[in-house]
Amino acid sequence: MTDIIFDDRACALGEGPLWHPLRKQLFWFDIVNARMLTRTKDGPQSWQFDEEHSAAGWIDADTLLLASASGLWRFSLGDGSRRLLTPLERDNAVTRSNDGRTDPWGGFWIGSMGRNSETGAGSIYRFYQGQLRQLFKGITVSNAICFAPNRQFAYYTDTLTQQVMRVPLDRAGWPGGPSEVLIDSTAERLYPDGAVVDAAGHIWVAQWGASRVAEHDSNGKFLRAIDVPARHSSCPEFGGPELSDLYVTSARMGLAEDVIKAQSTNGMTFCIRDVAKGLPAYQVLL
Predict the structure, then answer these.
(1) Active site residue 62
(2) Which residues, at least 6 apart from 101, have a Cβ–Cβ distance to it below 8 Å?
(3) Residue 52: how many other CB atoms lie within 10 Å
(4) Pick the catalytic residue: 193, 198, 227, 245?
(5) 58-101 residue pLDDT tens
(6) Which of 29, 67, 185, 244 is the most exposed place for a label (fewest CB within 10 A)?
(7) Residue 75 belongs to some domain of the structure
């Protein structure tokens, strides 16, 4: 395995990587700078928005679902137009969207948080069959939303708790019981950020401030860590021709200038080859 700088555009807060399985293309966000980025054989590309965007799902080859501070949107990659699907805390000036991911049923889970990490200001929602429903509230920094491949569980975290939670799902993909702690990182003082699940059901968790992504089995047991050349690794995603490459976003936010100067790769997006067998991102069904 070799660390590769996939894209050298430094993000203040790189997040939300999505490998589009039809386009064979990675999309990701620089949340605080309100832009979405991608890279193809023709080079880098980006879209600038008028508010923070943080996560995406794919609807078809040319259309994404985008999560922003005020709503969920249908976005055309062809002409850059977007259409509102549902508001998301539109009247709450304190919060913005954060981590999100499509579930195996075609629903889209999206978390919110305070722009200044206000305590308990955020929630986690599910958008499914045209309706947005709140699942969890009182969350400070919503992250690590991902799903077991057998459809039995969803995972999420409130980063500041240092714990990744597991919640059972019913046959329609809704929480079917209480959440329980799956990964407890309090003793190691590690902060879980974004996460993704591979084909074996293992959970890969970016750890904010730790320069790495940690692999845990489906029971939460730590297996190994993959180092990345950035202090704040923020979210992993499997992609590449065989879905075996691990893409990792990172952030410069909160780092001192001397830290950035000493490690200019902070905020860049990385690709580590042949890490594990991933799963294709699920399609958003509207």
Answers:
(1) no
(2) 55, 57, 108, 109, 145, 146, 147, 196, 281
(3) 22
(4) 193
(5) 999 999 999 999 999 999 999 999 999 999 999 999 999 999 99
(6) 244
(7) yes
